[in-house]
């Protein structure tokens, strides 16, 4: 049977939600990483051909988590353990009356997570696939009796035909911290932000809606966020920046990262 004839397929480490009409998404249980999102058979996400699915490292690409910390961590792996840990499918997949498909995944504290971070927690991650969009709902539960401080970030690696022609609309007048200029703060003056060199910025107090123009086949992508005002824009460009990232030598032309 062709994969697209079924609205749900589960392999050992991946769940495929298929809405029909060649629209689908794949969630790998390693990190609950969304490794593919297709609309009318057009892939929206970047996934490196050099990605490893062995569990020894996180998946290079797709939509992934940083939890409970972002960046270097003296007690555990960089950007936390969530993207390097196997999650469980705990709800669905369920096909709704509208034809949309949803599934819920969970990551609960265990001896591995407690060895880095001594908190009893549970993450719930609901993914809903629509005809022209995909929606994510993230819930964090604290099972301890004392407060729990954490950072949770959803990092999206978007596929574009040519990053130098891609435009990001909605950031004008927003302040950003530029990590390539000693972390200094600047204000964005451009109506449309474009990528012409290595990029590593965090914009603060951004609108809830941003638009990525000229993504796949010249199309646009609306990014709608809830309870999050900070946006990361990143592109490795070329040269030494690609070493050790499992991204491939020419990926910089086809990748734009946001969170």
TrEMBL record:
Gene3D superfamilies: 2.70.98.10. It catalyses: alpha-D-glucose 6-phosphate = beta-D-glucose 6-phosphate; alpha-D-galactose = beta-D-galactose. Keywords: Isomerase. Its EC number is 5.1.3.15. One of its GO terms (cellular component) is cytoplasm. Pathway: Carbohydrate metabolism; galactose metabolism. GO terms for biological process: carbohydrate metabolic process. One of its GO terms (molecular function) is aldose 1-epimerase activity. It comes from the Eukaryota. The keyword Coiled coil does not apply. InterPro entries: Aldose_1/G6P_1-epimerase (IPR008183), G6P_1-epimerase (IPR025532), Gal_mutarotase_sf_dom (IPR011013), GH-type_carb-bd (IPR014718). The keyword Isomerase applies. Mutarotase that catalyzes the interconversion of beta-D-galactose and alpha-D-galactose during galactose metabolism. Beta-D-galactose is metabolized in the liver into glucose 1-phosphate, the primary metabolic fuel, by the action of four enzymes that constitute the Leloir pathway: GALM, GALK1 (galactokinase), GALT (galactose-1-phosphate uridylyltransferase) and GALE (UDP-galactose-4'-epimerase). Involved in the maintenance of the equilibrium between the beta- and alpha-anomers of galactose, therefore ensuring a sufficient supply of the alpha-anomer for GALK1. Belongs to the glucose-6-phosphate 1-epimerase family. PANTHER family: APOSPORY-ASSOCIATED PROTEIN C-RELATED (PTHR11122), GLUCOSE-6-PHOSPHATE 1-EPIMERASE (PTHR11122:SF13). This is Galactose mutarotase. The lineage of its organism: Eukaryota, Metazoa, Ecdysozoa, Arthropoda, Hexapoda.
């Amino acid at each position: 049977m062709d994969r697209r004839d079924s609205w749900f397929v589960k392999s050992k480490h991946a769940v495929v939600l298929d809405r029909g009409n060649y629209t689908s998404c794949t969630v790998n249980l390693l990190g609950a990483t969304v490794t593919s999102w297709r609309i009318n058979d057009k892939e929206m996400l970047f996934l490196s051909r050099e990605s490893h699915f062995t569990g020894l490292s996180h998946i290079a690409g797709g939509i992934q988590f940083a939890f409970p910390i972002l960046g270097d961590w003296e007690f555990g792996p960089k950007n936390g353990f969530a993207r390097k840990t196997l999650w469980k499918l705990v709800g669905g997949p369920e096909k709704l009356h509208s034809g949309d498909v949803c599934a819920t995944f969970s990551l609960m504290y265990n001896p591995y997570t407690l060895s880095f971070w001594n908190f009893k927690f549970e993450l719930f991650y609901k993914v809903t696939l629509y005809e022209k969009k995909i929606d994510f709902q993230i819930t964090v539960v604290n099972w301890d009796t004392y407060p729990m401080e954490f950072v949770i970030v959803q990092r999206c690696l978007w596929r574009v035909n040519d990053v130098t022609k891609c435009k990001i609309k909605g950031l004008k007048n927003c302040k950003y911290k530029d990590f390539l200029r000693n972390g200094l703060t600047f204000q964005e003056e451009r109506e449309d932000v474009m990528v012409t060199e290595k990029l590593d910025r965090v914009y603060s107090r951004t609108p809830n809606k941003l638009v990525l123009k000229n993504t796949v086949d010249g199309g646009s992508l609306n990014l709608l966020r809830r309870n999050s005002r900070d946006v990361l824009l990143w592109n490795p460009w070329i040269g030494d920046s690609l070493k050790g990232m499992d991204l491939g030598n020419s990926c910089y032309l086809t990748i734009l990262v946001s969170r």
